[in-house]
Amino acid sequence: MKTLADAFHHTLQDVYYAEHALTKALPKVIAKVSSADLKAALKQHLTETKAQIAVLDDVFAEIGEEASGEKCDAIDGLIKECDGVMADASGIARQAAVIGCCQAIEHYEIARYGTLREWAKALGHTRAHDLLTQVLDQEKKANHTLTHLAVTGINKA
Predict the structure, then answer these.
(1) Predicted confidence (pLDDT) per residue in 94-109, tens digit
(2) pLDDT given for residue 1 in this prediction
(3) Which of 26, 67, 123, 129 supports an S-S bond with 46, CB 3.0-4.6 Å?
(4) Radius of gyration over every alpha carbon of the chain, rounded to an integer in angstroms
């Protein structure tokens, strides 16, 4: 990478890969949690994640690039950590630990989308900036939902 445009394209590929990886990982997590509220929140976010892939397709088109992903070791590691937690924990500890893992993933996505949004603005990609802002807001909302579930019920149990 030699330019901001290169970094933008590379990071866009990174989140594209990450969102696709999450569409494969989230159903496994949903199957392992017992909290109805957590299950519903994760199902909702899976639906959003699939829609976010379509938004990313639009961002790629907006910058004149073909949509493609590039392996992201960070998301692979976060998903692997969640898999390990689900294997090792049970009961309410599993619910709390899954929330923690999912929030780590959300925080990663918030960081990436926040960066991409600002780079899009700097590069003059106004529509891409707006689209990435929408996704960033969804990721922040998902994180807030997880926090709410944790502090109002799961952590208390």
Answers:
(1) 999 999 999 999 999 9
(2) 85
(3) 26
(4) 16
Enclosing domain of residue 17: 4-154
Overall domain count for the chain: 1
Three-state SS for the chain is CCCHHHHHHHHHHHHHHHHHHHHHHHHHHHHHCCCHHHHHHHHHHHHHHHHHHHHHHHHHHHCCCCCCCCCCHHHHHHHHHHHHHHHHCCHHHHHHHHHHHHHHHHHHHHHHHHHHHHHHHHCCCHHHHHHHHHHHHHHHHHHHHHHHHHHHHHCCC
Closest CA to 50 of 76, 27, 83: 27
CATH code, 39: 1.20.1260.10
Residue 156 has pLDDT above 90, yes or no: no
Distance CA 82, CA 94 (A): 10
Q: Could you tell me the pLDDT band of residue 121, with boundaries at 50, 70 and 90?
A: very high
Q: Give which of 92, 106, 111 is closest to 38, Cα–Cα.
A: 92
Terminal C-alpha separation, the chain: 48
